[in-house]
Amino acid sequence: MSIFYRLLGSTGQFGFFIWQIIQALFRKPFFWRETLRSMHTTGFQCILPVLAIVVPTGMVTTLQGLQVFEVFGAQRLLSSLLAEAIFRELSPTLVSIMVASQAGSAVSGEIGTMRVTEEIDALEVMAVDPFQYIIIPRLIALVVMVPIINAIASFGGILGGYAVAIGLKGLNSGVFLSNLFSFTKMSHIWGGMFKACVFGLIVGLISCYRGYYVSGGALGVGRAANTTVVHSILLIVCVNYFLTSALVTLLG
Known about the structure:
Mean pLDDT: 86
Number of helices: 8
Strand content: under 5%
Number of domains: 1
Largest sheet: none
Helix content: over 70%
Number of strands: 0
Order of helices and strands: HHHHHHHH
Low-confidence stretches: none
Structural class: mainly alpha
Oligomer: single chain
Distance between the termini: 44 Å
């Protein structure tokens, strides 16, 4: 029963945290400089690790898909498979998981350190709302930057697949490019971007929540960063199923 009560209390606390964010979101002043700084930090912190994951994934997908298509003599459809997989599923999910590992843990640790060192209490004493100055800029940065990073990573994955198909396997470049968007529509690409926005919101909410309610000193900060990564990835995987089901139903 104690686990049930703790879960119930955490759920209520998280709900109240979201309500405070909604209230602070539309209240002046808006700290745009802090928001831009957070966006800059998130982008440069995550872009290289994300590309290091998505580009090889596109290359491996091309290799595996080519083996199957060669059996049926349908190598011309390889680029269509790659585009579908990258834009609709692989890139949004992998990007969000990497952002949770990189930026999510960093945000949680940063806010947690501010809580432990009483910087958040000092802001409240100076009549500065910590939600407006700390939480909102980082949340906006993650919601905005994850789709941008996803767009860059998607084209990186396509380029990785192109390099393998053309450079290593000798497929015709014109056939590869002409069939790249045979089955992929703009609505599918925007659907992947929408998923990236939702996943960025998930990472932002969990990382800010875990950091804001840190307790237990330095050990608590480390625990919050670790919990942020685990919970974000689990929630992303679960939400991804429902989003994919809804988008497939709506967009085909």
